[in-house]
Amino acid sequence: MNPRIEIGGLFIGQVAQLAGDSRSSAIVKTAVSGRCLLQAEGLAGDTQADRRAHGGGGKALHQYPAEHYARLAKAFPDALHLVPGGLGENLSSRGLTEDDVCIGDIFRVGGARIQISQPRTPCWKIDHRTGCPGVAAFIAEHGLAGWYYRVLEAGEIAAGDWLEHVERPTAAPTLAEFWRVIRASRPTIEALLRLAYASGLDAEWTAKLTQRAEWLRNNPTGNAT
Q1: Checking DSSP bridges between strand 16-17 and strand 36-39, what pairing results, if any?
Q2: What is the pTM of this model?
Q3: Which residue has the higher pLDDT, 200 or 222?
Q4: Which whole-number Å values give the CA distances from 81 to 17, 27, 87, 135, in the listed order?
């Protein structure tokens, strides 16, 4: 993994009603010029419509690899907004993907220190945003969702800052491994528990994974969802 990459874009958004829909979202983001304060709950000026799915301590900041957009555009040539910032991410970069980063990785960026806490779970808002059914499912199938950070130390950050890797827990699973396990129809109990107890993983994921492992233990045949 490249230990030091440049942040290509920093994005924030406000909750607004989605075009052609009665529901609201803050998936539409605007690039920030200048420095922005990153605190425990996220970037100053960035809001979330559904706090159960976005924002808060375990989902304070979302990073998305800019190189994924070319793959999405190839699979969905008619999709809209397949450019950095287009899927609601806060940080855009090149040089780090799910194959490179691990649950629990700690980075320094600008004046802040952040830790990868979980993958993003793509939802229906991505299909609405792109105007193309199936994009969210494709992202989940191929593990192209990016990841969330928790904030360990607040500070100001900006596009052009360096994202520097400073620490990795022992035996930490990559995000790519995480997706392979959770997408399997019947993963091994050992694989699920390796993820569940990964240092730095958000507590909600730990609960989900241990529950699935327990279901598998009690149901030796059949698929666990």
Answers
A1: unpaired
A2: 0.94
A3: 200
A4: 17, 11, 7, 12
